[in-house]
Amino acid sequence: MKTKVGIGHSNQTDSYLAGKEAASKAKANGQIDRADFALIFCGGKHNPKQFLQGVNEILPDCEKAGGTSFGIITDSFIGYDGFEVGVTIFSSDKIKFEVVKQGGLNLNEAKAGEELGKKIQAIAGDDLKGLMVFYDSSKQQSPPMLNFATPLFASMEPYLPAGLPCVGGGFLADMMLSECYQIVNNEVMTQHVIAIMISGDCVMESTILHGCHPCSDYLTITKSEGPVIFEIDGSPAIAKVQELLGGADQVDVKDFAMNVTFGVNRGDKFGEFKESDFANRLALAVDEEHQALIMFEPDLTAGTEVQLMRRNLEPDYVQGEIQNLKRKMEGSSPVFSFYINCGGRARPFSGVDFEDAEQVQHAVAGIPLSGFYSGVEVARVGGVLQPLDWTGVLCFLAEK
Amino acid sequence: MSSLEEKLEQAQKEINYYKNRLKDLTTTCMSLEYRNSDLSKDVIQMAEGLKVIAELQNVDANSELDVLFDNLAESINVRLKMDVASILLPEVQGTLNFRLKYLKGFGTYNTEGVREKIIEVPSAFFESKNSVILNQDEPHDEFEKYLRDQLEIHHLIFSPIIHNREILGYFFAGRRPQLLQKGKGVLPYHLNILDAIGGVISTVQNQLERQAVLERLVEERTKELKEEKEISENLLLNILPYETTQELKAKGTVKAKDYNLVTVLFTDFKNFTQFSAGLSSKDLVEQIDFYYREIDQITSRLGIEKIKTIGDSYMCVAGLPVEREDHAVIAVRAALEIRDFVDQVKQERQKEGRPYFEIRIGLNSGPVVAGIVGIKKFAYDIWGDTVNVASRMESSGEAGKINISESTFQLVQEEFSCHYRGEIPAKNAGNIRMYFVEPKG
């Protein structure tokens, strides 16, 4: 039997009914008689337990994984008002899904990553072909803080088969870092990282989409502490960025938050521009008192070379990247595409003139698409698992 | 300096020149991009506000105001990306206590707790028709502080819904500061959006009020039309049998119909010409009307179809348009009642010395054809020899007597006492066997 994938969504405000509707639509759309596995995501304004009850009404016995998301993407729908839910059902003889989870993320990201890596290693078979990793982005403390993906993935990677295709995303309920949830089968949890192991007669490939280009010289981080960058090229970080942007009268410092994006080039320093070589790093907030930028991730340590990235996207960049990905999949039959897009890239938050997820919908046309809006995205850049900001990660799953 | 060094210096100068040019261009481009991005976000947010207004304009004119406000509060919450949104209406019309009736709060907001609260608006604030926007700043007065406490959210907007220059209610929307965005919570353009939504609500309210007036007018007019229709139908029923009116309404025409056996009844006032000579036309009509009204009552009650009156002659028939087997018996019963009524009036008037009528009544049973002829002033009529013979029975009778033919006699002899009068010559009909009929016993 050819693998069947069914995708459904809903944006009802009643969580139970939304779950039920999305699951029903997914089942109908995919003409699925036997559901083997389901990816389930619900918006940050939903009650995840009621949502799960609704899904279970339609898929009582099927294994499930997912959680809270900032928004939903499917073949025909994009939404980020907080009430969107999405359900993707798989029915396959060739592709197998297995879920492992690890808690305590807020206590120690590195430890959680290591533990999860060990669990994956313990049960991974020779036919493990890919990995999806989702985690709780919000630490739930006052003031709110993010769980860092850098130590999480760095400590997980040694336990994974070398070069194993892997994509991931950090769950985010909303832009206020409200509590978000992870779901594995009938459990609703927080502060967990979950890994979906994909095995069988299949292949998984991914690409990153951000459309950003470097627009400055290489800049060197000269002083940082965790996610806080104090100095760039020996100058206070804010002053340096202000200088690059034409001075204080041009751009309000408060606008740096969620706008200032640095790119780390993992490829040839002076080589031809290659989008997939750049890992983006986004400023989460500004600390005006200390003239510092607070980043999403803590990996821009002293000595790291970055470039200021411009991100006035042009819609056509998506098509080219996706065509390249399709070429990589030649010889196999893609059955599913999955898009993890940064919540900040959603049009109302990015200020960009077009919705990049719409371009993805058009470009993957014919391959069932689902996905969610995330806090942080994860993909391999330069062969290394790399948390990314202001990026879309698209992956294809194909039968051989 | 060697030539090579000079060239290198020149090259470095060129590199620096282009590097600075590039930097200037990048700076300009980036600052524009940042400002553009910021404006775009505002434009998108405002566009979402317009969507709320557009949704309002699509409201079904028949929808309940309750449903409208409930959906609107949800729409404001979702579209404007608020944590909570509500429409407050006066608890009692004309008071300054407002209830958060339509409250849409999601996530961690204390929706149920806040829903129970009554917001007391100071009269000065109410009269001013002002709005409140609260963000990071400290409250300016006690009411702002009260709002923040009661509504349990730091960043909020509280603005009046103005309808016909009066405050219909208030909007309340609040959200936590967007931690991952520059936004300060509630922005001034949110007030503009809510004002615009308030304007549409006022328009909708006007429409609903106009619609209510229209509905009342339509209801009144419908009632009038219904009454007029009833009058028309009753008038029609005075002219035509009910079954015939139905056929006429359904098909526009009525086919003549054969009836095998009916009983036709004629009456005539004796000495009408002499009687009428002593009365004015008006008095004469009044007198005839007096008698015919009672005869109408009798025939209607017994289910006999009145055909027409011609001067002092009254013609009716039993057994059509709905056929019935007892037509002759019913017709004789009617004849006796008519005769008794006329006799009773006669006796009363004799005592009073007033003029009175005496009546002759004749009946005959047999086949007739019934229908409507012509296209104006419809009249239902019957034709056939039976009718002519019935008329002869009347003219061959005696005042105060019911004269029936042989065919009627055969149908009623068991029910009534019949006295054979013999074969009596009738005009244009030869000799006819006739009977006087009276109640038995």
Verbal overview:
Chain A: InterPro entries: FIST_C, FIST_domain_N. Chain A: Pfam families: FIST (PF08495), FIST_C (PF10442). Chain A: This is Small ligand-binding sensory domain FIST. Chain A: Residues 34-236 form the FIST domain. Chain A is an alpha+beta fold and 400 residues long. Chain A has two domains: 4-209 and 316-399, no CATH class; 213-310, no CATH class. In chain A, 20% of the residues lie in helices and 38% in strands. Chain A has helices spanning 15-29, 48-58, 109-123, 149-156, 237-244, 316-328, 347-350, 356-363, and strands at residues 4-10, 37-43, 63-69, 71-74, 78-79, 85-91, 95-102, 128-136, 166-171, 182-184, 187-189, 193-200, 202-209, 213-214, 219-225, 228-232, 235-236, 261-265, 278-287, 292-295, 305-310, 333-342, 369-374, 377-381, 384-388, 392-399. In chain A, the strands form four sheets. A six-stranded mixed β-sheet of chain A has the order 1-6-2-3-10-11. In chain A, helix 1 (15-29) runs parallel beside helix 2 (48-58). The longest helix of chain A is centred in the N-terminal third of the chain and has 15 residues, at 15-29. Chain A is globular, with a radius of gyration of 20 Å. Chain B is an alpha+beta fold. Chain B has twelve helices and 14 strands. Chain B starts with a helix and ends with a strand. The mean pLDDT of chain B is 86.
Task: Give a concise summary.
With 400 residues, chain A is of the alpha+beta class. Chain A has helices at 15-29, 48-58, 109-123, 149-156, 237-244, 316-328, 347-350, 356-363; strands at 4-10, 37-43, 63-69, 71-74, 78-79, 85-91, 95-102, 128-136, 166-171, 182-184, 187-189, 193-200, 202-209, 213-214, 219-225, 228-232, 235-236, 261-265, 278-287, 292-295, 305-310, 333-342, 369-374, 377-381, 384-388, 392-399.
Q: Spell out the CATH superfamily of the largest domain in chain B.
A: Nucleotide cyclase, GGDEF domain
- Termini of chain B, distance in Å? 162 Å
CATH class of the largest domain in chain B: Alpha Beta
What best-fitting shape of chain B do the alpha-carbon axes yield?
A: elongated
The percentage helix of chain A is: 10-25%
**Largest interface, Cβ cutoff 8 Å:** A-B, 43 and 34 residues
Pfam families (chain A): FIST (PF08495), FIST_C (PF10442)
Protein name (chain A): Small ligand-binding sensory domain FIST
Organism (chain A): Algoriphagus boseongensis
InterPro entries (chain A): FIST_C (IPR019494), FIST_domain_N (IPR013702)
